[in-house]
Amino acid sequence: MAKLEFENLAAFKKMKAKQLPKGDWITVTQEMINAFALATLDRQWIHVDAKKAEKESPFKTTIAHGFMSVAMISSMITDLIRIKSMTMGVNYGLSTVRFPHPVPVGSRVRLLSSIKEIEDYSDAGAKVTWNCEVQIENISKPACVCEFIALVFEGEQKK
């Protein structure tokens, strides 16, 4: 359930330059990593071969794909906010993506985010730029730092 609720985009726009609540911790499982590997065709042993990773990896376990951290951000944002009038959201892009620390299997991650920019986009939408940091529990460096850009729309969309 979202931690912050807004009636509409006008109310949400007041969040510009403000910090969002901290996200809930999510445990990164081997099943999640395997599913991401299958979906992206990135089946490097460091991600999917636990026995080899234990013997040969400097991390001594499998690690999640860096892009898995990015892929989880839109869901993590949805857990933080809800705009009641919103009918659709679309990923628009990313800026300055970095992966400072790998995520070992079994780690817990959460999102720290703030709203960098909210711009009007069409008659019934906004382009939102979020400052995002995916934290790893008990590790000082984040898994991912980026600007995540999304389009959000309310009401019926014109064709």
SSE topology sketch:
Elements: E1 4-6, H1 9-12, E2 26-27, H2 30-40, H3 45-48, H4 50-56, H5 66-80, E3 81-83, E4 86-98, E5 108-120, E6 125-136, E7 139-154
Parallel strand pairs: 1-3
Antiparallel strand pairs: 2-5, 4-7, 5-6, 6-7
Report what the structure shows.
The chain has one domain: Hotdog Thioesterase (Thiol Ester Dehydrase, Chain A). It contains 5 helices and 7 strands. It is elongated and about 55 Å long. The mean pLDDT is about 95. The longest helix has 15 residues. The strands form 2 sheets. The chain has a 5-stranded antiparallel sheet. The chain has a two-stranded parallel ribbon with strand order 1-3. The protein is of the alpha+beta class.
